[in-house]
Specification:
The protein is mainly β. The chain contains one helix and four strands, in the order βββαβ. The chain has a domain of 49 residues. This is DUF2141 domain-containing protein.
């Protein structure tokens, strides 16, 4: 990916049924996998941007890890 310098955060959804949205069960828990840049959600509360953001500087190459979580 070629990105301009700046502050970014990635969120990833494994949209298993291809409907373009996150699906939830009757208790409000995600039914599909999700992940955030360099952050593993260990609890049930959605992280805020500050918890998974990163800064990309000019001419810098970064390796961003994303681990999907399935509840």
């Amino acid at each position: 990916m070629n990105l301009e310098p700046g502050v970014y955060g990635f969120a990833l959804l494994d949209d298993e049924n291809g409907n373009g949205t996150m699906d939830y069960n009757m208790f409000g828990m995600p039914k599909e996998g999700f992940g955030f840049s360099d952050f593993y959600l260990s609890g049930l509360k959605k992280p805020n941007f500050d918890q998974f953001k990163f800064t990309l500087r000019d001419h810098q190459q970064l390796k961003i890890n994303m681990t999907l979580r399935y509840l």
